[in-house]
Amino acid sequence: MRNNFIAGAWSRGAGARPNINPSDTTDVIDEYAQADAEQTRQAIAAARAAFPAWRRGGIQARADALDFIGLELAARKEELGRLLSREEGKTLPEGIAEVNRAAQIFRFFAGEVLRPGGETLPSVRPGMDVHITREPVGVVGIITPWNFPIAIPAWKIAPALAHGNCVVFKPADLVPGSAWALAEIISRSGLPEGVFNLTMGRGSVVGQTLLESPDVDAITFTGSGTTGARVMATAGARFAKLQLEMGGKNPLVVLDDADLDRAVEVAVQGAYFSTGQRCTASSRFIVEKGIHDRFVDGVQRRLAGLTVDHALGEGTDIGPVVDQSQLDQDLGYVDTGRDEGARLVCGGERLQRGSDGFYMAPALFADTDPTMRIAREEIFGPVACVLAADDYEHALALANDTEFGLSAGICTSSLKHASHFRHHAEAGMVMVNTPTAGVDYHVPFGGRKGSSYGSREQGRYAAEFFTTVKTAYVAP
Ligand SMILES: NC(=O)C1=CN([C@@H]2O[C@H](COP(=O)(O)OP(=O)(O)OC[C@H]3O[C@@H](n4cnc5c(N)ncnc54)[C@H](OP(=O)(O)O)[C@@H]3O)[C@@H](O)[C@H]2O)C=CC1
Ligand SMILES: O=C(O)CCC(=O)C(=O)O
Predict the structure, then answer these.
(1) Which residue, 215, 326, 409, 442, has most beta carbons within 10 Å?
(2) Which numbered atom of ligand 1 lies nearest the CA of 406?
(3) Which family does the similarity line name (predicted)?
(4) Is residue 442 part of a domain?
């Protein structure tokens, strides 16, 4: 049994939940505690009590703790990557890379602690000085999804601690293993009691308690738009500071002048790797007419060569879907696409493999109309569609015709079009000749429109959410 970490101690939950391997549902990774509302309130109270001393505790202690966490994650990336792949279903190389990314994030923020900002300016009133400083926000509730079980927690927890906040962390119920392993390392990093708390359990219980508690000053959330709206309605109504990262329907524009092989690789990597379970995944290929048929053939051929199998298997390119309910959603959208009249070029069926997992053949639709549901709604699986474009202007209009705005890509050899797209794509992140998914850890991450709310995550820009600015006027 893996317990919660509250007020510096490991505590049993009000219940427990088995963590099931999506590559093999007979493989139970472990049992994980589930907190109830009362235990969540205890964690919030512990964080609140720890905050005054922690915020004054000095930046060296923060830097040392974050460095410790980053170094241990890096040293154990193979072991923890295996755990991650086993519980979430991304391939072992992807799992190891994600743990390594979490390590890099902690080490980045260990350095960031030692680079505090602040300005001193003359006042417009003679003789007076103005000091602008950043202070921690207080107690931060961190609510994360299942698709990046260690990287997303890392990029929320590390800046929260670096900037002097206390944390109550609620990981996705589906993937408590990586979160628990991270918390176990954090528990040995020298943080004072109560600064960091782990409360595993249901969103409707643990998450909801965080949203409602007046002692939680800020909520950073990644997940679905539906839950994001609930975070806004509940925590927003009590004026908590909010940062929401939600869905995407990310376009990849392919122009006639693109290098075909490269465009196919960019498309397949962006749409289907990690089983398409990335908010940055390409799910709309917007392809100019001259290259359209060759691009569709190329993607179909590349997909035929991919191995969908056990996430830990040697040579697996694409692991299983995360669980039955996500698989049902993905297969349901394949049916929807067919019913809407799109042409299923390949894939879209459930696959049987040597183990009892949630395997699905990556699906490609062509002859898709921009009004179809498969072209408008986030599917969050290995399903993508092709929309034909008359020319660059038409492609740009199609790319921007969405309620989302996270990542947008273009494949082209034209500097003019690449540059125009960079300026006019309505997205938080633009990718030129590289997949829409797969971002660096030291630069801002986030989107526009229905994809994001609040300030950016990651890099120096994370300070905007995890601190509050104070302006002090000092007269002699
Ligand atoms: N943009 C992105 O990065 C992601 C988007 N998604 C999208 O969301 C869909 C569902 O995925 P899922 O992970 O279940 O996303 P959810 O939005 O349901 O869950 C995200 C997190 O919010 C928690 N949560 C759920 N209900 C509440 C609540 N009432 N109050 C506070 N927290 C709550 C969840 O807990 P619990 O685990 O207990 O449900 C989880 O920790 C996917 O199919 C996909 O479309 C998913 C993951 C990432
Ligand atoms: O593409 C990436 O590297 C990050 C994706 C992500 O954060 C997500 O899918 O939630």
Answers:
(1) 409
(2) 1
(3) Belongs to the aldehyde dehydrogenase family.
(4) no
Tokens of 180: 């628990």
Q: What is the domain-level CATH number for residue 346?
A: 3.40.309.10
Question: Which of 170, 209, 227, 445, when mutated, tests ligand 1's pocket best, judged by the most ligand atoms within 8 Å of its CB?
Answer: 227
The Cβ of residue 250 has, within 10 Å, a number of other Cβ atoms equal to 32
Report DSSP letters for 35-94, one per residue. --HHHHHHHHHHHHHHHHHHHHS-HHHHHHHHHHHHHHHHHTHHHHHHHHHHHH---HHH
Rounded to two decimals, the pTM is: 0.97
* All residues at 6 or more sequence positions from 229 whose CB lies less than 8 Å from its CB, including other chains: none
CB half-sphere exposure, 191, CA atoms < 13 A: 39
Same domain? 62 vs 120: yes
Cα 30–Cα 35–Cα 37 angle in degrees, nearest 5: 165
pLDDT over threshold 90, residue 325: yes
Question: Are the C-beta atoms of 247 and 404 separated by less than 8 Å?
Answer: yes
Complex ipTM value: 0.95
pLDDT in tens, 64-91: 999 999 999 999 999 999 999 999 999 9
Cα–Cα distances (Å) from 326 to 219, 300, 382, in that order, read 25, 23, 11
Q: Do 212 and 346 fall into the same domain? A: no
Side chain identity, residue 199: T
Residues 145 and 446: their CA atoms lie apart, in Å, by 15
Residues 395, 338 within the same domain: yes
